[in-house]
Amino acid sequence: MTPGAATAVDSLALLPATEALAGFRSLEISPVEILEAQIQRIESHNGDRETGINAFTETLFDSARTQARAAADEYVRLAREGGEAPALLGLSVATKEKHGIAGRTLEQGLAAHRGRIAPVDHPVVERLNAAGGIIHARTTSPEFSCATTTHSPMWGITRNPWNTETSPGGSSGGSGAALAAGFTTLATASDIAGSTRIPAGFTGTVGYKAPYGRIPGFGALAADWYRGDGPMGRTVADTALLAAVISGRHQTDHGSWGGYGINPFAGGDVAGLHIGLSLTLGDYPVAPEIRENTLKVARALEAAGAVVVPVELPWTTARITETTFAHFGHILGPAMATETAGTESELAAYTARFIKDAAAAATRHTLVESLAMDHALQAELAAAMAGLDALLCPTSAVASLAADGDYLDGIATSEGHLGHYWEAHLTSPFNVANRCPVVSVPSGLSRDSVPTGVQIVGHPFDEAMVFRVAAAVEVLVPGPGFPQLKPSYSASSL
């Protein structure tokens, strides 16, 4: 479905957040109307855990409706009396299940966590509530967010609205699917090896990996310098709006930093900018159609006045995988093994494989050695980006992933077979270099009718630049629009 072909209900459900807020302020649109349009789409198209899009672990429609009515009343009051509304007042936000809501389950798809209840709101949730956002649904992820597809024994298979045989990516696959399907206006995500950008790429949406600590995390694993929480939206401006709300120092995460409420959106003028172009980041086997879509973006930037500079990096997918798993072998892998002890027989195959691979990498490299591996990649990226304002590269090397795929034997690509399917994505190097901000924006469609994406990589902490370039790409190379959804004939699992 393209925006021009949408029905009135569809148009409301798919309305960008910035436009919705303008409509709320002018009283031309009510938060109730948009929420009901999205609920209608969810009930018609989300489907069940086996054959449907299945984007959610649970829905919170009753409380959301109450909040929407209160938001509508508040806009009427503000129009009469004056004043400024909270930044997200009346906008629907689907939150990734790992972003705990006090008093509700926090299971992360694990049998070992079944029935676990969040004692407090995650900082991201706390800030959404304070900004007037309406959390109407919680989105699926793979077990412990450790895969780039989204399926689990607990929550079933989440499918890509563009092509339901394929995955929306992972680990924030439910968020990407919900945005693409018009089930929500905004969504939250997280990213430790590409878990925000990969779903954005595969669903034709926008995902932002902020510099480490810019968005506060929760719990001991928030200290892992590869990780981060983040925003997703259907436009660059929407994603920046959500980033502004959830970013900034928070008292519960001493590693968090920066001011709160600072919108990194900076327009889209790229004239005079020097933008590096790497189609493969070394030797990633990027599919020809993805290369062409990336080149299309580069040519458009050049036509808009940017200077596009080819960049060579001395990286291999095998080396990057070894580097990241050496890190995971000393942090995330042992944490997962501890969390799932006693329930090993109930784990998804990809989770067991991750724990095993991480443990093996830890026997090959000490933590100090893994730091040296990180430092080498960071230094090479810094050298490659010297004199540039940003770097452009694909988000994924492959056009799609199977919705139910485990990829225990690696993945076939256009140029051969990779031993580990994580090598199919060009995202994890920028978790190693995790002070670099990165935005993934759409670049076109693949022959699988699945969107493709490009990453805009900035120098450490330079958030405004990546949003500036991303905004230009969005204008110069319009996204794929919206998928045509099929009615769901299966009973919803929600």
Automatic annotation (TrEMBL):
<dbReference type="InterPro" id="IPR023631">
    <property type="entry name" value="Amidase_dom"/>
</dbReference>
<dbReference type="Pfam" id="PF01425">
    <property type="entry name" value="Amidase"/>
</dbReference>
<keyword id="KW-0436">Ligase</keyword>
<dbReference type="GO" id="GO:0050567">
    <property type="term" value="F:glutaminyl-tRNA synthase (glutamine-hydrolyzing) activity"/>
</dbReference>
<comment type="similarity">
    <text>Belongs to the amidase family.</text>
</comment>
<protein>
    <submittedName>
        <fullName>Aspartyl-tRNA(Asn)/glutamyl-tRNA(Gln) amidotransferase subunit A</fullName>
        <ecNumber>6.3.5.6</ecNumber>
        <ecNumber>6.3.5.7</ecNumber>
    </submittedName>
</protein>
<dbReference type="InterPro" id="IPR036928">
    <property type="entry name" value="AS_sf"/>
</dbReference>
<dbReference type="GO" id="GO:0050566">
    <property type="term" value="F:asparaginyl-tRNA synthase (glutamine-hydrolyzing) activity"/>
</dbReference>
<feature type="domain" description="Amidase">
    <location>
        <begin position="33"/>
        <end position="466"/>
    </location>
</feature>
<dbReference type="InterPro" id="IPR000120">
    <property type="entry name" value="Amidase"/>
</dbReference>
